[in-house]
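Ex. 9. Protein: GIY-YIG nuclease family protein.
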Amino acid sequence: MIKSGVIFVISNIGSIGRDIYRISMTKSSKPDEYVSVMTPVVPFPFDIHLKIFSEDAIDTLRLLHQRFYDKRVNIVNERREFFRLSLDEIYRTVEEISQQTGALTILKNERVPQAYEYRRIAAQKKQHSTSKDTDLEENQIA
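Predicted C-alpha cells for GIY-YIG nuclease family protein:
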C-alpha cells in the first residue's frame, strides 16, 4: 500500500472568508490537479499555502486533523476538512510533526494568499464606490 502523498493547506478568502483553511491530501501522481479540480465549485480559485510531501500522508493528515479538531468549521461531518484558525498555528504544528517524524518535505510555502481575482474585484468595487461618492458630492454642491 502506498503511504506517501501530498498534503495541501489551501484557502479561499473570496469564497469562504479569512482564517479558514482546508487541510487535505492526495496520493495522485499529479497533485496540483487535485486543487484545480476544486476551483470550479467556488467563485474564486483556491490559494495553496503549503504543499507538503509526506512519507506517511495518511498519518500526517490524521495528526493535523486531531490537533485542530476543536477548530473544525463543520463538527458534524468529519469529511469536511475545513478549519478556522491562524496560518501561524498550522505552520507551528507542521514544524512539530516534521521534527517528530522527519518524514515531511515542504514543496510549496506561501504565507500570504494571492487571491488575485478576489482582490481585483474588491479594488474595482472600492473604486466604483468612491466614484459614486464623488458624483454625489458634486451633485450636492450644484
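Check your answer against this statement. Helices lie at 13-16, 31-38, 57-67, 87-101, 116-141.
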